[in-house]
């Protein structure tokens, strides 16, 4: 099926799809939409950015009836993804008066309570959704479509018990759809418990290995940031994503890039939802060229035109490495992954090489670098110094 018309979608939905300048279905859409429109339970495996939202969105938009209560529930692991999915569904359903809302933590709950009384489609993170169940401010008795988006991430983030509680609160007679970048045994076990005669579909990896170059530098810990700054300043790049393993390192990197006149912003779970949304918009609109982030930005978020991925720290889980590098080399464009290794990265990097032996990651020679004096968190350093002093044994003058 090479056109959306072949899926027998309504003219209103086809018009909205064309308005988004989407001309041909992606592989995951070709594989899953016919089953979704037939009401079959589906497990869909496909990379972030490959069109999964439109795939399950077609079923929701066509089957949900306006003004007849909550009929579709979509679970996402992060606030950003919830907001992104909601906005996408609104665009695709602009010709149908559906009330589509997102609910997640970190913002006031009263406005959500009001919106839930009118909602037809809810996109939610598990924790906040359970809050509404406890408050009895949500009614799922009419839900006929349940979607888990980025299901593998739900497991990674420890949400699976919450997800199971939510599934049990939905009617047993429903259509259930799981979409994920990777389908693990955990997801299959969950499907066997909560799906009926499901079908599994998958799409080829969205990253084109022929257009993705991976390299690594081996550098001393003290020169690691100097190398990153040098590469950002001198390599001709489009949009750059710099991945760190912790919030603390993310804050450190963005502060020092900015101090060296590199246009950078940060995103991690410690920021408010409004700040995280503004940051993503700045980056997507090319207002800044460097996004420094934790793995919260590696999954689900729709970010286009990323030409370079810098792994300032190597992730412990080799699957997270795959999701990071999947941000570039898309839609026929070239991409480059640069790994910056110092002593504490070697074990993680070895694990990635072992788990993905087909990767060709070339060693690069470090350029001549001028060491940059970095700015550190003085308050944190002072706390560390005070802790060290408290731990020292008291010294007495023998002449006292």
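^ Assign residues to that structure.
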């Amino acid at each position: 099926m090479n056109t959306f018309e072949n899926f027998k979608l309504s003219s209103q939905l086809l018009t909205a799809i064309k308005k988004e300048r989407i001309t041909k279905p992606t592989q995951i859409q070709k594989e899953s939409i016919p089953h979704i429109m037939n009401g079959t339970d589906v497990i869909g495996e496909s990379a972030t950015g490959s069109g999964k939202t439109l795939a399950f969105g077609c079923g929701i938009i066509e089957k949900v009836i306006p003004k007849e209560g909550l009929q579709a529930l979509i679970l996402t692991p992060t606030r950003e993804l919830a907001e992104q999915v909601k906005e996408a569904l609104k665009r695709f359903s602009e010709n149908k008066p559906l009330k589509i809302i997102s609910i997640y933590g970190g913002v006031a709950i009263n406005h959500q309570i009001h919106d839930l009384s009118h909602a037809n489609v809810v996109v939610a993170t598990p924790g906040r959704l359970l809050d509404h169940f406890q408050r009895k401010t949500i009614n799922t008795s009419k839900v006929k479509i349940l979607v888990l988006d980025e299901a593998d991430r739900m497991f990674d983030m420890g949400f699976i018990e919450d997800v199971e509680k939510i599934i049990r609160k939905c009617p047993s007679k429903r259509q259930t759809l799981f979409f994920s970048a990777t389908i693990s045994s955990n997801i299959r076990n969950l499907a066997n418990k909560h799906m009926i005669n499901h079908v599994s579909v998958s799409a080829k990896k969205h990253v084109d290995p022929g257009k993705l170059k991976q390299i690594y530098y081996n550098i001393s810990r003290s020169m690691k940031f100097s190398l990153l700054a040098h590469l950002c300043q001198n390599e001709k790049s489009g949009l750059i994503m710099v991945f760190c393993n912790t919030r603390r390192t993310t804050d450190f990197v963005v502060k020092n890039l900015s101090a060296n006149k590199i246009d950078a912003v940060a995103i991690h779970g410690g920021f408010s939802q409004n700040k995280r949304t503004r940051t993503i918009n700045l980056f997507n609109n090319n207002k800044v060229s460097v996004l420094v982030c934790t793995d919260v930005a590696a999954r689900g978020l729709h970010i286009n035109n990323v030409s370079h991925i810098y792994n300032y720290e190597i992730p412990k889980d080799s699957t997270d490495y795959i999701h990071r590098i999947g941000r570039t080399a898309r839609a026929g464009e070239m991409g480059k992954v640069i790994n910056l290794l110092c002593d504490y990265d070697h074990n993680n990097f070895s694990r990635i090489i072992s788990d993905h032996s087909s990767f060709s990651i070339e060693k690069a020679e470090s350029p001549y670098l001028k060491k940059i004096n970095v700015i550190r968190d003085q308050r944190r350093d002072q706390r560390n110094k005070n802790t060290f002093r408290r731990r020292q044994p008291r010294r007495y003058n023998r002449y006292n």
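The longest strand covers residues 212-218.
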